[in-house]
Protein: DUF4957 domain-containing protein
Organism: Mariniflexile gromovii
Amino acid sequence: MKRIAIISTLVILFITTKSLAQTNSIKVLNINELNNAIKNCKAGDQIIMANGVWKDVEIKFYGKGTKENPITLTAETIGKVTIEGISNLKIGGSNLIVNGLYFKNGYTPSKNVIQFKIDNKIADNCTVTQCVIEGFTQPDRDVSDHWVEFWGRHNELSHCYLTGKSNFGPTIMVRLEGNENIYNYHHITNNHFGPRPRKGGPHGETIQLGDSGTSMTPSYTLVSNNFFERCNGEIEVISNKSNFNEYRNNVFFESEGSLVLRHGNYCTIDGNVFIGNDNSTNIGGIRVINTGHWITNNYFYKIKGKEFRSALAVMNGIPKSPLNRYNQVTDVVVAYNSFIDCKSPWQFSVGSNVSQSDVLPATEIRSARPERVVVANNLIYNEVADVNPIVNYDKVDGVTFKNNIINNENKSEVKPEGLITKAVTVSKKSKALFVSNENISDVYSGFYFETITKDLFGNARTPNSNNVGAIVNPVKENAVLIDKTKFGTHWFNPNNVVKPKTINVSTSEALITALKEANAHDVISLKKGTYKLNSSVVINKAVSIVSASKNRKPELIFSSENTAFEMHPNGNLTLENIVLTGNKTQNTFTTLDKYMSKAYDLFINNVEIKNFKSVLEVSKGSFADTVSVANSSIKNCERGFMLNKETNDGGDYNAEFVIIKNTTFDNIQEVVLDYYRGGYDESTIGGNLILKNNTFTNSGKAEKDSILIKNRGIVNVEFSKNTFKNNPVKLIAILWGEKGQEPGENTIVNSGKIEVVQNLELKLMY
């Protein structure tokens, strides 16, 4: 036996030595050396990119490694190799690993930043890990790309951090064209998807698995243990468009959208966490379309959205739907989920639109109700009673409710026997984590329910130890909903914050210098006086210009040719307690004509704006997250806020939030506000307009359409407590009745009328 042990040890040493001998570390200093190393690499090689900036490089990493001896492309020091400029990475071959690269300060010249494919050479069993893609977005927001595009089979994106994509196209795309790309079993795991800004139009998903044309093909992709932090690109954070995918143990934190089973069938959504707040109705949960899905062990906290963004949205379908529209929901199981402090969490027949049949073709009418849907063993708990937990937009005759528990009376129109009021109590275990104090083990055992063997935390569900909702007691003392150590890289810190400073200014020259030298979020404080500016002020970072004294407004007088303030990508301007004066030849604020790659913001408070052309003039492709005007005066201008350049009727628009409160408009010659969204699209918030407590006088006399305020196609509009006097127009505004828009307590004197159109006819996009 001793001799056998010695021989076994020698064999292991021989194999280990042989394996180590195959490893060859090759350090490369530039793209030529890198290309040469890739050309000659073999299984077990490690290609090491030297620390520093690699600019304008298109890397094609190919080769044939083995499972035991992969070929690795890695940074000399993880995080110290930055890929910048016009650059990308393509991977082709088998058993390749990319490790520790940092993409920033640039964009891809192709359709992808990282692609698991080189021309016709696809990747199999390849991994990208510990990489960062930060703000690597196209200069033109209308140009489409994907930051990571999967082809082939058994590929993996893990422990990466991706943030800041603002242009057209999903961040992650799984392609399924061709037999070599189906049954792919890709893994997207343990990544941190940092904030994706609002896009102001469709095609802003964070992950999309397949497309309409390949939506009936089997993918088997696993998306697990990822952190989606404020992914606000559009209504679909994840867009499932293929079959047999699994979504497990992900955290969706304050993301303005949902995990959407848009196309495809037989998906599993298990053990995910959806966290909202009390401030937003745009944060969603799970939206269900198609057949055969199992939705189990998910935890929803403070999801306040409705319809498409409700915690659980089960849609109506289109009879005999084409691939790119909405198939009927059938044979879906929703079991063992917890809904804590959510608003009307269960919404059925979402998207029912029979009432719009006069403006939509029959092929767009969603009239096919859900069938053979089982909703069982779920928990609804509200600290403050929610008496309307179920919202129905059609009959709910195809849904079976079994043994669901709610802690208050259900006064919804739908009152199934299977939603039982019970005096459940809960305890707070950690931030946002509330667990029922006692197990309710008398659960419904439906077909195949015996396969639901674990809860949210992986605890066993047994006949003797079970509970309604996502969690079975007892829960570990240190249980948390978000364990940030699981997500993203081990080296990149996305939360570095520089403390802002205040810069005191008293002259025009000092103001110009301060604007150039200020860091992001600095405050420029102006002493009382007059500041004459003969050139445009560039705003390309977050900066505030305020009065040093609230009672004494400094005046900025502009003689610049085109605009007072030129808004650039990432420009975030706050103006407070100042006067802006033009000479009627320039705009107050103007975006760049092109290359507005990222959003800008504009906050105006207690500001007087006078003698300009347009107050705000934007370009196609530009996008403001927020334009806010409060407590201000705008007078003697040709036009007001012109957010009207997205006229392709593709669902795009120029600003997400337009908020105008407690402001006076006097002697505006043409339109005061033109805020436009065209196209029949439901993939976005759809724009938000708040127009409240304002006064409009002597405006609109030169407006050719004789409309004072234009808000065509904007979905969310609050229009109340405004005063309109002596505005020579036919219409003050046209509101969209089907979206719940109505005028509220406005005073109108000699100013036309406010018209409500119930169904607004829009151009079909599909």
Remarks:
- The helical segments are 2-22, 31-39, 508-517.
- The radius of gyration is 29 Å.
- The CA atoms of residues 642 and 674 lie 5 Å apart.
- The first strand starts at residue 24 and ends at 28.
